[in-house]
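quick one, 232 residues, struct below
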Amino acid sequence: MVVLALGGLGRGRVGYAWVLTLFGDYRGSVRRTGLVWVSPLLLRRRVDVRLRHWRSEPLPAVDANGTALRVVVLVVWRIKDTVRAALGIEDHEAYLSAQVESAMARVLSQLPADAFHEDAPTLRNAEAVGDALTRMLKADCEPVGVEVYSAQPTGIEYAPEVAAAMQRRRIAAIDAKHRDSVLTSVVDAVDDTVNRLTTRGIVDLDDYERKALVKDLTVAFYTGRTGGGDSA
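---
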């Protein structure tokens, strides 16, 4: 009896719980800290219920355009339901990794990584992507007792095989947007200048002369604003 009694003694630790089974059947959980006694006939499985952080390796994915990406995700999670978590899955981090990859594929495929020629939602909005990923991952993990607090992409990059080409495309799009902005500003400035000249009676222009002046001013203003290296 003494041996039996001593064999059931154990010490509960903060941040851990025991799941008790007998011949594979669930018999209870122990979350108390300090010295506890559990029947030595029961099999104890210790479960870590602390808040944990898990960072993925760069995972493959594709965006809405089918462009290959590499994504790193940081997940904050813990085991909430010890029974489901202990009896439902063996390796919690392996399960979490698989669910992250699945959820990430679904979320990232809904938007392009970049919108080069228009103002549209993209994967560069890390907060929106993280919110969608968190909601999806939370729903996927809840049935097995795992609670997901946050799943945030810490890096969304193009895959090495397409990175150089996409970088050139991004630079070209930025340059085109800049040129368009400069040209719009120049056209406004030319229109304002010609209107002031004619309104104040400084010059009297017919249609041909007006078009010629507009053309000359546009070339002069555009050249001045682009440093003299571009032509209209």
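The chain has a mean pLDDT of 80.
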